[in-house]
Design goal:
- It contains 7 helices and 7 strands.
- It has 296 residues and is an alpha/beta fold.
- The protein has a domain at 51-130.
- Strands 1, 2, 3, 4, 5, 6 and 7 form a 7-stranded mixed β-sheet that branches.
- Strand 3 and strand 4 form a beta hairpin.
- Helix 3 crosses helix 5 (107-126).
- The longest helix has 24 residues, at 224-247.
Length: 296
């Protein structure tokens, strides 16, 4: 039986004080737009989750629960039975989801649950969970690089073969992206591969992205040289974040993605004014992922 919601940590010297850290989502924010990083990690401005993001969270929860069951119970019927309870629990834990539907009798809620059920159908067409024995699901990982940079994140699933090879799996509830989106998704997987390598001394043999919406898989095998280069990339990103954090100079980077940003009205690139800079926090929200990271 797979263990769930585990922690795997290489503790820093001062473990009593929570330190600023970098997650793949926040690193991606800074690469996309430094001001977006500030709004999310420093100002911690609220954002309204979308139905697509909530659906991603629910599907992830169902798959995690499914792998927590005995092997013979991991069938499609059981996954379907887990769907509504998973939604109710997530909704209760995250009040910001209340705005998504008018109530339990909202016909759009039924349609939304049906769409989530369709993603579970796709998953069972792509894999047979009765043939798999994951080492962990929703594994929380944390490690400190030699430079002192602390990395944190959650890995959807870790598979370990009888011969010891490691595979990292990430579920995506959207369609397989084009080249730019593919690079963004693989950035996340390389992040996890680096963390696990630093924790265990073993480079994952395969990074697997599963796109449920169109039933496509994207697999990649990293090597040591590549992960060392990626480590230097993360360190450069973090140094840039720290420089901006000292001065508050988080500049916008306008792109077509701005139309989907909750904070567009506050952006100077569109005539807005950001709130006063609160200063670099002791523990910016760089360390945890949220429902906003479970995007379609």
């Amino acid at each position: 039986m797979a263990e769930t919601v585990q922690q795997e940590t290489a503790k820093p010297a001062d473990a009593t004080r929570r330190r600023p850290a970098l997650s793949p989502s926040r690193a991606g924010d800074f690469k996309q737009c430094p001001l977006l990083y500030r709004f999310r990690a420093v100002d911690r401005l609220p954002e309204k989750p979308t139905r697509a993001q909530a659906r991603g969270t629910v599907v992830h929860s169902v798959l995690e629960r499914l792998y927590g069951l005995p092997t013979e119970q991991r069938d499609r019927q059981q996954a379907g039975d887990l769907l509504a309870p998973a939604w109710e629990e997530i909704r209760a834990e995250q009040p910001e989801l209340e705005h998504l539907f008018e109530g339990p009798d909202d016909p759009e809620l039924a349609q939304w649950l049906t769409s989530a059920s369709g993603l579970l159908d796709a998953y069972f067409e792509m894999e047979d969970p009765q043939r798999l024995q994951p080492e962990a699901c929703e594994l929380r990982v944390e490690t400190e690089l030699p430079s002192g940079l602390l990395l944190r994140g959650f890995i959807d699933r870790v598979d370990v073969a009888p011969t010891g090879e490691i595979r990292l799996v990430d579920y995506k509830t959207g369609k397989a992206p084009r080249e730019i989106g593919e690079a963004k998704a693989m950035f996340q997987m390389k992040f996890y591969a680096l963390v696990l390598w630093r924790l265990r001394g073993e480079i994952p043999r395969q990074l697997l992205l599963m796109y449920l919406a169109n039933k496509q898989k994207l697999a990649y095998s990293p090597d040591e040289d590549e992960l060392r280069r990626f480590e230097r990339t993360l360190e450069a990103i973090w140094q840039a974040i720290l420089r901006a954090g000292k001065t508050g100079d988080f500049r916008p980077n306008p792109s077509k993605l701005c139309d989907y940003c909750d904070h567009k009205a506050l952006c100077p690139a569109f005539g807005g004014t950001p709130p006063p800079y609160p200063g670099w926090p002791e523990d910016p929200a760089t360390n945890e992922e949220s429902i906003l990271d479970r995007t379609d």
